[in-house]
């Protein structure tokens, strides 16, 4: 599909439900009119399709545009797939602002991407941490006309963020999800004059946020999804969102300066009777290497274990330098408590990743289980 189609008034006026790559026939319920469906890109759980009204998507687009100072003279550049809400949102923002829109159609290459930005006068774009890491490592300077790079789909570590800003890349950490039509919180343009930090992240004004009793984020706002399409006895069924507030699976802290992600509640595991969040260990490993260990190139998998309840296994892509692997695990073990120690490192060639470079945990766990069964 040509993404420019998403910037036309004809698309936004059409009430026919739209779902790129939907594996079947959409439900015929009238509630789905004027909705766009996205398969969630989460690394755990069963696949599901989130239904967002076009009004909700445009509410999100308008909020992001206002937050980033986008106007008719701006140009949104798309370098992400539109089947995910992060990429789709770029096209929606261009339509909402009535500004220029450009699509980076080539295979990811830092050199060609920078040249494309120059040639097209892109002022705003969205990237994932892996792409920003690549730009920082390449030491290519950002075009002067680039005003904002929204970074989503994962945590951009301190070193990569600082290195990118030192090269002129105006990277802004964001936090969002499919159910919210894209961004819930995004750093402000004023933060570009400060040292990069991945959090806290200010909430966009359209969102209300609170915490559940167990620390999960709950959100309400005009860009919230309408419902969900999932399989039931072989058929695709649409279910309406049950209330005004949506409780997410994410643990966060909320403060006057915004939101600080603390990991998914459903990925907390018990190790020797202690609660452990593997994602926090991943952040520690990345920080211990000053960003040389790129986001998306490894995971810490929690594997069921008869003695410990779960064993923590670091899994790396084959492209990661082995000496770096050994040194970071040694450094980590010199400071971690016993229950957070890691098992022997596993290398996968390649590490299963989605289109946005996000490791696919279900596939990784299945490969680990198969290796264990074979005695590998």
Describe the structure.
This protein is an alpha/beta fold and 376 residues long. It folds into 2 domains: 3-262, ANL, N-terminal domain (Rossmann fold, 3-Layer(aba) Sandwich); 268-373, ANL, C-terminal domain (GMP Synthetase, Chain A, domain 3), CATH 3.30.300. Helices cover 26% and strands 27% of the residues. The protein contains 9 helices and 19 strands. It has a 6-stranded mixed β-sheet with strand order 4-3-5-6-7-8. The protein has a 4-stranded antiparallel β-sheet with strand order 1-2-11-12. The protein has a 4-stranded antiparallel β-sheet with strand order 9-10-13-14, with no helix packed on it. Helix 2 packs across helix 3 (85-97) and helix 5 packs across helix 6 (158-166). The relative contact order is 0.11. The model has no long low-confidence stretch (mean pLDDT 92).
What characteristics describe this protein?
376 residues; alpha/beta; GMP Synthetase, Chain A, domain 3; 2 domains; 19 strands; 26% helix
Task: Chart the SSEs and their pairings.
Elements: H1 9-13, E1 35-39, E2 49-53, H2 54-68, E3 75-78, H3 85-97, E4 100-103, H4 110-120, E5 124-127, H5 129-138, E6 148-151, H6 158-166, E7 171-177, E8 182-186, E9 208-211, E10 216-220, E11 227-232, E12 235-240, E13 246-255, E14 258-264, E15 269-271, E16 274-276, H7 278-288, E17 298-305, E18 309-317, H8 322-333, E19 346-348, H9 361-373
Parallel strand pairs: 3-4, 3-5, 5-6, 6-7, 18-19
Antiparallel strand pairs: 1-2, 2-11, 7-8, 9-10, 10-13, 11-12, 13-14, 15-16, 17-18
């Amino acid at each position: 599909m040509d993404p420019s189609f998403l910037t036309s008034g004809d698309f936004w006026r059409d009430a026919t439900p739209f779902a790129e790559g939907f594996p079947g026939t959409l439900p015929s319920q009238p509630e789905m009119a004027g909705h766009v469906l996205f398969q969630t890109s989460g690394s755990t759980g069963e696949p599901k399709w989130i239904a967002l009204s076009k009004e909700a998507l445009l509410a999100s687009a308008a909020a992001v545009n206002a937050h980033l100072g986008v106007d008719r003279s701006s140009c949104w550049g798309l370098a992400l797939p539109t089947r995910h809400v992060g990429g789709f949102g770029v096209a929606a923002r261009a339509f909402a602002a009535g500004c220029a829109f450009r699509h980076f159609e080539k295979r990811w290459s830092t050199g060609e991407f920078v040249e494309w930005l120059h040639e097209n006068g892109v002022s705003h774009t969205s990237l994932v941490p892996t792409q920003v890491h690549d730009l920082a490592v390449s030491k290519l300077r950002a075009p002067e006309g680039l005003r904002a790079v929204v970074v989503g789909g994962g945590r951009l570590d301190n070193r990569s963020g600082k290195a990118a800003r030192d090269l002129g890349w105006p990277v802004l950490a964001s936090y969002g999800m499919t159910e919210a039509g894209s961004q819930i919180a995004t750093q402000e343009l004023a933060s570009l004059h400060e040292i990069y930090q991945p959090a806290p992240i200010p909430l966009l004004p359209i969102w209300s946020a609170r915490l559940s009793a167990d620390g999960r984020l709950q959100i309400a706002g005009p860009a919230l999804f309408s419902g969900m399409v999932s399989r039931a006895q072989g058929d695709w069924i649409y279910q309406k969102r049950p209330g005004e507030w949506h409780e997410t699976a994410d643990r966060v802290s909320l403060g006057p300066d915004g939101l600080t992600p603390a990991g998914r509640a459903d990925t907390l595991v018990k190790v020797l009777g202690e609660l452990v969040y593997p994602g926090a260990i991943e952040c520690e490993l990345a920080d211990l290497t000053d960003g040389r260990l790129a986001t998306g190139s490894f995971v810490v998998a929690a594997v069921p274990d008869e003695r410990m309840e779960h064993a923590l296994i670091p899994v790396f892509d084959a492209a990661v330098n082995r000496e770096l692997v050994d040194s970071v695990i040694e450094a980590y073990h010199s400071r971690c408590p016993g229950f957070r120690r890691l098992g022997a490192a596993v290398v996968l060639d390649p590490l299963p990743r989605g289109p946005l470079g996000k490791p696919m945990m279900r596939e990784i766990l299945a490969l680990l289980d198969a290796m264990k069964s074979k005695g590998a």
